[in-house]
Specification:
heterodimer; A: mainly alpha; two-stranded antiparallel ribbon; 13 helices; disordered C terminus; B: mainly alpha; ABC transporter involved in vitamin B12 uptake, BtuC; 14 helices; 2% strand
């Protein structure tokens, strides 16, 4: 029992927090507690974020970061819009756009690994470049007329209450959980994230593992754009420019170690539900947008701070028992991000 | 910094020494890039090469120069600060609101936004240095926190500069030796911070922790303290930039300076400060900021679209980061050759 609690303590904490947030929300507003309301608002607040965040999980597990996902999503939006206005069937549009988004993600990975560069700096540059391409193709206008098939994924309701995009998010997370926790590739991702050098020395092509994780991030951003279009019926080059904070918060709050190599994928889904419930509650309580952002930012800082403080506390307790030798203060790899 | 080059000269390998010195001095390359840009735009558009336009570029670039200087300090310690845009919004709104409410006190109140910036820097520094939160995550969080606080404080209002006491406008329009007060301030900041980083103890420690964080404790230095001080310094400089930004903008709203952190990081990276920390200097970052301001100005004169500007900025970051990686690799190789020769 204690071992289970030790292993899944973070997830249990998230479930408790979800219940607390739900209770508070239902006390705040009489409209909260209905299946239709919860489903609809969860879709509005987390369907896009969840799809994109699922792509970021492997990247962070491998010890890198990708901040260009929102730009890839915007470019995907523009591409889907072009396909729709040309009247292409979805069977052509989806593979084409997803392939291109995967390529953009892989390009990030190639730049990061080929020159051993910090991923933040690289994806900062590619973020602007990708968004510039979206502007080049899409201009400043807005596409708002889509074929019905293009809108299905982001707007359809299964049995009038369950949004199709939420089902998609759950399916994505199930697949991701299986990939990360039950396949060879997943184990290689964790190994690379825990120690690049040791993994490379044991014969794993770590660069290839990293490039694949970046490509996954790209594909998920592309899939996110299909959800986005259905939800907002709009495609502009500046779409989703404020999504980064939410995506990173969900992943980190989900218990994925920001230094890589540790964390359970299902926790991210729980964090997604928690953030969605919190946003829903704040929306019902008429909290203005910037204040909601403030709350999310605080959640992000606290969710990283808490495990760090626990770790420091444990180290301190150990130090009192033994006399410790000189301790390097920065993480052993020497790379802070 | 040039000691290895001098050592090379001492053991009779002057050519090797010269190459090492050239690679270590990246400001030259960045300055050459700026000159090329100026020549390029002057050839394309005669309006570009006028004194009035140079004044415009310098004026527009001066705030970015100060912010980039601050960002460079943090990047030198192998960290990032994504919250500078939000610090500018918070410090300029709250700071200038204090100025507006107390018109009698005078120019000493210009310190208020600077101190607010310093306080924001302390929060960032405490999170990164003492609580061990990775700098990207910590400052991504505080980015939204500081901006949210600015919104909460403003409550939907805005401050017009014409409601502020006259000394504020005087500062914005002041001139010294024919140069705008803003440009002079930015110049002084670059010189002082550049000299401080080079000759003061804290400055050397900032380079030390960026070059090799693991070695810092073995020299008896406290790593967290250094990083904390770097963030506070960045906050103070950003606060100063916030004051100038607000005064120049004409009206102050809480959504001021959105995305400034990305432009500042771009300036730092283009200016030859290594994203791996420990190498580069604020003069480079300042020239990088001026280069971005020049590109912006030139493209507007040419009537180029937004996407060109954004694409060039993004591509400049990627290219600068790659060039930096290649230079680092080349330097390592040359230093290895040097060590081998000295041994034999």
């Amino acid at each position: 029992m204690t071992r289970l609690l030790y292993r899944f303590g973070w997830e249990v904490l998230l479930v408790v927090l979800i219940l607390v947030a739900g209770t508070v929300a239902s006390l705040l507003s009489p409209y909260y507690l209905s299946v239709g309301q919860i489903g609809y608002s969860l879709q509005q607040s987390v369907a896009v974020v969840g799809t994109v965040a699922a792509g970021l999980v492997p990247v962070i597990l491998v010890g890198e970061i990708d901040i260009s996902q929102a730009a890839i999503l915007a470019l995907g939006n523009i591409l889907f819009a072009q396909c729709s206005s040309m009247g292409l069937p979805l069977a052509v549009a989806i593979p084409g756009t997803l392939l291109l988004c995967a390529g953009l993600g892989a390009l990030n990975g190639i730049l990061v690994t080929a020159f051993a560069l910090p991923s933040l700096a690289v994806t900062l540059g590619t973020m602007e470049a990708y968004r510039a391409f979206a502007l080049l193709i899409g201009g400043h206008g807005e596409y708002a007329s889509f074929g019905a098939a293009y809108l299905w994924l982001g707007s359809a309701m299964i049995g009038k209450v369950l949004p199709a995009s939420l089902v998609l998010v759950v399916v994505i997370f199930a697949a991701l959980t299986f990939t990360m926790h039950r396949t060879l590739f997943g184990r290689l991702v964790y190994a690379t994230g825990s120690g690049v050098k040791a993994t490379a020395m044991s014969g794993v092509r770590v660069n290839r593992v990293k490039i694949i994780t970046f490509a996954i991030a790209g594909v998920m951003a592309g899939l996110g754009s299909l959800v986005y279009i259905g939800q907002y019926e709009s495609a502009r080059a500046d779409n989703a420019s404020d999504i980064l904070l939410l995506v990173v918060t969900v992943v980190v709050l989900g218990g994925i170690d920001i230094f890589g190599g540790r964390g359970n994928v299902p926790g991210v889904l729980l964090a997604l539900v928690l953030i969605g419930t919190a946003r829903n509650g704040m929306g019902l309580a008429n909290t203005p947008g910037p204040v909601q952002t403030l709350v999310i930012g605080t959640v992000l800082v606290v969710s990283v701070l808490l495990p760090q403080l626990l770790r420091l506390g444990r180290a301190f307790a150990r130090q009192r028992r033994f006399v410790q030798p000189l301790q390097p203060i920065i993480s052993e790899s020497g790379r802070t991000r | 910094m040039n000691s290895s080059a001098e050592a090379a000269t001492a053991i009779g390998a002057p050519r090797l020494g010269r190459r090492i010195a050239l690679l270590q001095n990246r400001v030259l390359g960045v300055a050459a890039f700026l000159v090329l840009l100026v020549v390029f735009f002057s050839l394309l558009d005669p309006r570009f090469a006028s004194l009035a336009n140079a004044d415009t570029i310098a004026l527009n670039g001066s705030v970015l120069v100060i912010v980039a200087c601050g960002e460079a300090i943090v990047v030198l310690t192998r960290n990032y600060d994504l919250s500078v845009g939000s610090i500018v919004a918070l410090a300029s709104y709250v700071g200038l609101d204090v100025v507006r409410l107390h018109p009698g006190i005078g120019p000493s109140l210009a310190l208020v936004p600077v101190l607010i910036g310093g306080a924001c820097g302390m929060v960032n520094g405490a999170l990164v240095a003492y609580a061990n939160v990775p700098s990207v995550i910590a400052t991504l969080g505080t980015m939204s926190i500081f901006r949210g606080l600015a919104y909460l404080y403003a409550g939907g209002n805005q401050i017009n500069v014409k409601d502020l006491p006259p000394w504020v406008v005087d500062i914005a329009s002041s001139h010294l030796f024919g140069l705008s007060g803003l440009v002079v301030t930015a110049f002084l900041v670059v010189v002082l911070i550049g000299l401080g980083l080079r000759y003061l103890r804290t400055g050397r420690q900032i380079y030390a922790i960026g070059s090799n964080p693991a070695a810092v404790p073995f020299y008896g230095l406290r790593g967290p303290g250094i990083i904390f001080r770097a963030y506070v310094l960045t906050g103070l400089l950003t606060g100063l930039a916030a004051f100038l930004f607000g005064v120049r903008a004409g009206y102050i709203v809480p959504y001021l300076a959105q995305g400034l952190e990305l432009t500042a990081l771009a300036a730092v990276v283009v200016g030859g400060v290594s994203v791996l920390g420990g190498s580069g200097n604020v003069v480079g970052a300042a020239i990088g900021a001026l280069a971005l301001a020049t590109i912006n100005n030139g493209l507007i004169l040419l009537g180029a679209s937004d996407f060109t500007r954004q694409f060039i900025e993004g591509a400049a970051i990627v290219v600068a980061v790659i060039v930096d990686a290649i230079i680092q690799a080349r330097l390592r190789e040359l230093l290895r050759t040097l060590r081998r020769r000295r041994a034999s």
